[in-house]
Amino acid sequence: MRVAGYGRVDRGAALSFRFDGRPLRGFAGDTLASALLANGVRLVGRSFKCHRPRGLLAAGSEEPNGLVSVAGVPNLRATMVELAEGLEAQAQNAWPALGLDLMAVNDLFAPFLGAGFYYKAFMGPGRTWERVYEPLIRRAAGLGRLGRAPDETWRETAYAHCDLLVIGAGPAGLMAALTAGRAGRDVILAEEDAAAGGRLLAEDEEVDGRPGADWALAVARDLAAMPNVRVMMRTAVTGAYDGGTYAALERAAPGHAGPRETFWRIVAPRAVLAAGALERPIAFADNDRPGIMLAGAARAYLHRWGAVAGPRVAVFANNGGAARTARDMARAGVEVTGVFDAREGAHVVGSRGRQGLRAVTVEAGGRRHAVPADCLAVSGGWSPNVHLACHLGARPVWDDRLAAFLPPQDGVPGMVPAGAAAGVFSTAGCLASGVDAAVAALGVDALELPRAEDGAYEIAPLWHVPGKRRAWLDFQNDVTVKDVQGAAAENYRSVEHMKRYTTQGMAPDQGKSSNLLALAVLAEATGRSIPETGTTTFRPPYVPVPVGAMGAGGRGRRFAPERLSPANDAIAGRGAPTVEAGLWHRPSYFPAPGEGWEAACAREAAMVRNAVGVADVSTLGKIDVQGPVAGAFLDFVYANGISTLKAGRARYGIMLREDGHVMDDGTVARLGDDHFLLTTTTAAAGPVMRHLEFVHQCLRPEMDLRMVSVSDQWAQFAVAGPRARAVLGAVLEGGLPDPFPFMACGAVSVGGVAGRLFRISFSGELGYEIAVPARYGTALYAALLAAAEAEGGGPYGMEAMNVLRIEKGFLTHAEIDGRVTAHDLGLGRMVAEKDCIGRVAAGRPALTDPARPRLVGVRTVAAGDEMTAGALLFAKGNRPTAPNIAGHVSSVGWSTVSGRMIGLGFLKHGPERLGEVVRLVDRLRGVWTDVEITAPCFYDTEGGRMRG
Amino acid sequence: MVELTATLPLDDGPLEAGGARLRLVESGPITALAPYKGAEARLSAALQVAHGMGFAGPGQVGQAGPGRCIWAGLRMAWLVGVRADEGLAAHAALSDLSDGWVCLRLEGAAEEVLARLTPLDLRRGAFPEGRSARSELAQMPALFVRDAAGFEMFVMRSMARSAWGEIALAMQGVAARG
């Protein structure tokens, strides 16, 4: 119900919303939780395991019961959902309805559903657990359900930097931010709530002679007006990480059209932890009835939103919160039916009511009596929010006087706890503590303090009231006092074991209101003190963070940048589907009308063999290496000699890793005495550059050379086929240089543009690669294609390129898969007798064993048979089982020149088994074929065509 | 006789959103200068003679007329806007990058937009005018230069469209905040 004259909601701005389909009304400034209370709705959800009816316990992000789904997003806390016109919220974990939940039958079986029940009850036989029990349990239990559709929500990630991050905008945080802001420092003030003020919004207190909430609003406005201060409302700091980095989740305001959430990484050398404190309940029998809530929450609902859970309120506490709550309720005209202060021996021992509280049972002076109440405000004391201070592994420190854990000293370098988070529970103390923290963090001047209330906090610890019926500790996970005692009895005495056995402290709220209670019950059950028992580990995130927020920007095509060739548009214009290689999007094939990929590939391959083809090879990595000792350096990084290469010539080279395996291959062209141009495979350009830098900076720093990636500078095209000369002759200024023998390179000019020509071939045909600066890539590609088409040729894509190179036994990373040596590839003789990376390791006996799988060609015995890459090879007659694996196929393609499928692969003793027929088995795709082992070259084995 | 016409790495025109303005700019020639061992002082002197400015140390940007010398990484600066004097090759490895990198210019509320794209500390105290920094821009390698009007981001030509798309989306994100 709503209380006249109370609350800071805008009563002039009424909003309609629905809860579980029921139309209700609230006001701007309400949360879903406050609006529900104001509408007299106490039952807001069903519990996780037992489907018990539950109501709101808290008023902030720690709320364990009020979990709702909004617009398909589950497990939102009703206390954090800002009311908006037309909001539709669904209760969770109830079927068919919140009021009549048939699954509540679970509660009848509660005696069998105690902690660890499924470890004991749902044993065997066989696979019954995964097949029967687990699906059943998963259907019966659980919180909200995820939507099945892809999440299209717009979210962002962002970075921020500041001198001081202030976490929390309560009295301490506001004063810390003000102190640092006035001193001219860059400040970020992050507050998870939609309004600044913290407890000042929830209490009836004055600061500087005016209502605390008004003071907070004014200070927040002052801060927002400072150019060096950034006030981030609705922003929960969720984690503290190394190097002064903090994670924070910012929610958009209701009705905001932009990104719904922004995941921030805030870098701050100093931070003030002013995250406040959380109130904890006291466990007693049936303490989970809707209407039983934390006293601080009851006051927050009253003062901030003008809402109470019912006309009759009783109070039960072990600290001064009892009197304060009773006073505030009475002033608001709410009937206070009883104030039970545990310090004076009065205990609430039970509750009555079905879906909402009707009365509590009280024991005082040895007598029990019932007291009518719609709402019981409970306070078991306050626990400082130490979480962030413990995220780097430090443990909180027990304080007997406060009966609470305090943040550790220097738990996070640069972080200073302040206010209630530091165990300071009076408003005046918090204001002073905020100033002190900013002064301590930054060494700035202190500000004068506003006047405020300065009461003492007195508490007599009371964790649970003994009784026979279930007393709930963790509302979100349905964990009771008895469960924790049971865990201890079963010898789960470590707090970490107790947590896992009972599930206490798991799920969205991570035990915010239950951890200390459970710990105290465990300590009592094991005869230890609370500090001896210790806490579980505090880990990020402090509040739930959608994975979609952390990974914002990583969905679909934005998963990775797309690298496009300079000729991309011309290629796309010819309708070529693309395939990704090392972020580059390369054309697979160029389909003629009505042509599928296989037909296009075969046609393109034949075109190159018989006429001429043009392929875009701009994507290959290109690295300029220059300097007087560049040749010597390349001798060190390539397995074969490079320094002997003459200017104007190119050479094929392989690079080994330190462990002797092949890292990459490519050509090296010597453009001048001190200038080499390396090409790498498309996907390995980055790793090769990193490797070269490592070798230069760490292994051979004395060598004087410099290197720079020029991959994107050049558009480069392969022109291959018997008619290649005619195509280049038509394009090059002054015609094709003559002589220009195989593996020559040199400068050329195309229409006045300086380019480079290389006589290299990846197809086995007469082949050239021509390069011009990238801006001319589209134009050169068009010119080459026009010339090629005049010669009966055209463009070819990756599929045809693959077939052509398999026919020649040329390698790609399908073969250079990180596990093969030069010896395996038949290139052992390339490893020169000189010092080079990987040479010694490559000579180890195990890497030169002839029994290793080594490169071979494979061809189907029957022309029509299928063959697949990734298939395994077995000697004929051997059973196709793992111990009998003799090798595998790495690449396959339909070879026009062979009239069948051919491939490359690796076979034990391979080169000694040419002509042998072996069994190819691909269980995944159901391919069983006989294949013949051949030399890894199917076409023009003498190389006359490419050298001619 | 074949005539080659140049094409731009992207067709998108200037974009304005969220108080920021984005456009593709023609930076002029880019030459990577990587001084050989012990040759930095000689390179700097030769640069001074040929182009009126010295070699840029870490984070520095020198300017003389249309030319700029922009620090671009370990032992490397880029000479941008003018053709590098060939004599510099005596002291440094020179590589033409004019077509390898594309310059995008962001003005107005650039800091707000870039906060969504790069981990760099963009506060003026940490990244003042006339400085450069290497970092990532939405997973892409980039060279950032700040001047009085905003930032220039040099990105690899092959990634120019992805970079443009990411910046444009970040601008929408800023715009939506009002």
From TrEMBL, chain A:
<dbReference type="Pfam" id="PF08669">
    <property type="entry name" value="GCV_T_C"/>
</dbReference>
<dbReference type="InterPro" id="IPR042204">
    <property type="entry name" value="2Fe-2S-bd_N"/>
</dbReference>
<comment type="similarity">
    <text>Belongs to the GcvT family.</text>
</comment>
<keyword id="KW-0560">Oxidoreductase</keyword>
<dbReference type="Pfam" id="PF13510">
    <property type="entry name" value="Fer2_4"/>
</dbReference>
<dbReference type="InterPro" id="IPR006222">
    <property type="entry name" value="GCVT_N"/>
</dbReference>
<protein>
    <submittedName>
        <fullName>Heterotetrameric sarcosine oxidase alpha subunit</fullName>
    </submittedName>
</protein>
<dbReference type="InterPro" id="IPR027266">
    <property type="entry name" value="TrmE/GcvT-like"/>
</dbReference>
<dbReference type="InterPro" id="IPR028896">
    <property type="entry name" value="GcvT/YgfZ/DmdA"/>
</dbReference>
<dbReference type="InterPro" id="IPR036188">
    <property type="entry name" value="FAD/NAD-bd_sf"/>
</dbReference>
<feature type="domain" description="Aminomethyltransferase C-terminal">
    <location>
        <begin position="854"/>
        <end position="940"/>
    </location>
</feature>
<feature type="domain" description="GCVT N-terminal">
    <location>
        <begin position="569"/>
        <end position="832"/>
    </location>
</feature>
<dbReference type="Pfam" id="PF01571">
    <property type="entry name" value="GCV_T"/>
</dbReference>
<dbReference type="Pfam" id="PF12831">
    <property type="entry name" value="FAD_oxidored"/>
</dbReference>
<dbReference type="InterPro" id="IPR041117">
    <property type="entry name" value="SoxA_A3"/>
</dbReference>
<dbReference type="InterPro" id="IPR029043">
    <property type="entry name" value="GcvT/YgfZ_C"/>
</dbReference>
<dbReference type="InterPro" id="IPR041854">
    <property type="entry name" value="BFD-like_2Fe2S-bd_dom_sf"/>
</dbReference>
<dbReference type="InterPro" id="IPR013977">
    <property type="entry name" value="GcvT_C"/>
</dbReference>
<feature type="domain" description="SoxA A3">
    <location>
        <begin position="468"/>
        <end position="553"/>
    </location>
</feature>
<dbReference type="Pfam" id="PF17806">
    <property type="entry name" value="SO_alpha_A3"/>
</dbReference>
Automatic annotation (TrEMBL), chain B:
<protein>
    <submittedName>
        <fullName>Heterotetrameric sarcosine oxidase gamma subunit</fullName>
    </submittedName>
</protein>
<dbReference type="InterPro" id="IPR027266">
    <property type="entry name" value="TrmE/GcvT-like"/>
</dbReference>
